[in-house]
Design brief:
By secondary structure, this protein is α/β, with parallel strands linked by helices. Helices cover about 50% and strands about 20% of the residues.
Length: about 325
């Protein structure tokens, strides 16, 4: 701790010295009358106790006054501490890229539920959500508004649940059409001409959602069964090469129903981007997300900032107590 204006400490010290050595003349009784024969009263224990109390309180008043002077000088000198703040944080850009064809819905349902807790714990990271089938739709562009991201994840979960196990009594309701349409509006555009589950196109579209020329770790959590059912513009391998070129790491997650050939192709593609491949048989979604969290941090270091912070709290409390005590004593001793 240091002082901005130490000269006030010197001034306070001088005032304390003056108060200690200053003698007040005895009061004269020119305006009053002396009382004779007071020796008897002075010998009474009641009188002696009152005088002792008075002298004690008077001494305490003097001490509190000196403390108030010292503390006031200390406050005027402005005590402060210096904080060196290193502006560092772990930053990443993460996109959840989901294949929303029917065969992946059970995997997506589990993943969405797990990711809600993960998103709530993020600090400094940006998160986005992209879904695809025939075409790709960006539900959430990269944002640090985690509450909004979780709201979208909640809606995704509800929509998937409606599709997997719809309440038949409500299949013609507006609520049903909205929730099912949330998954498929836009993602099935062109399906009659091009088919569905266009894996490479979905991944490539998500890659282009990242901004250019930013020094941040870029990650795609990619869920699909890699079951191609159409004619994509890019194959999965071509999309993986594009991800590698753009420095995007892909973590692939597949359901237990994935075929052997599809698994091998999928695993080879994500490892090309320096990512990892997972299926639910080898690990739970929780451990997959934890693995991504542990191995994909991006540390951003910025210049350190030196800040001076005043610390008047303790001396102010002492001064307040001293003044309050003086007020209390004044009710007992008429100064």
């Amino acid at each position: 701790m240091a002082l901005k204006y130490p000269v006030f400490i010197v001034i306070g010290f001088i005032l304390v010295i003056i108060c200690l050595f200053y003698k007040i003349k005895k009061p004269s009784y020119s305006n009053g009358h002396k009382i004779a024969n007071t020796n008897f009263v002075k010998q009474l224990s009641y009188y002696q106790n009152k005088i002792k109390l008075y002298n004690s309180l008077l001494f305490l008043v003097k001490v509190l006054c000196l403390i108030s002077i010292i503390v006031s000088s200390f406050l005027l000198a402005r005590p402060y501490v210096t904080d060196v703040i290193s502006d560092e944080e772990y930053n990443r850009d993460i996109f959840l890229c989901m294949d929303v064809s029917g065969s992946v819905n059970n995997l997506n349902l589990e993943l969405v539920d797990e990711l809600k807790e993960t998103v709530s714990s993020l600090k400094g990271d940006r998160f986005g959500i992209s879904i695809f089938n025939t075409s790709s739709v960006t539900l959430v562009p990269l944002t640090s508004d985690y509450e909004y991201v979780n709201n979208v994840l909640t809606q995704l979960k509800k929509s998937i649940e409606y599709y997997i196990d719809p309440d038949r009594s409500y299949t013609n309701s507006d609520d049903y059409f909205y929730n099912v349409g949330y998954l498929y509006s836009g993602t099935t555009t062109g399906s009659y001409e091009r088919g569905s589950s266009l894996i490479g196109d979905g991944l490539a579209s998500c890659v282009y959602n990242f901004p250019n020329k930013e020094d941040r770790t870029r990650i795609i959590i990619f869920t699909t069964d890699n079951s191609l059912a159409g004619s994509p513009f890019l194959t999965l391998e071509e999309a993986a090469n594009l991800s590698k070129e753009k420095n995007v790491i892909v973590y692939g997650i597949a359901p237990v129903t994935i075929g052997r050939t599809d698994k091998e192709t999928f695993e080879k593609a994500v490892k090309l981007t320096k990512g990892n491949y997972y299926d639910i048989r080898s690990s739970t979604v929780t451990s997959i997300v934890r693995d991504i969290e542990k191995n994909s941090k991006s540390l951003h270091k910025k210049e350190s900032v030196t800040l001076q912070r005043d610390v008047p709290t303790i001396p102010f409390i002492i001064l307040a107590i001293s003044i309050f005590s003086l007020i209390i004593i004044d009710r007992r001793v008429k100064l």
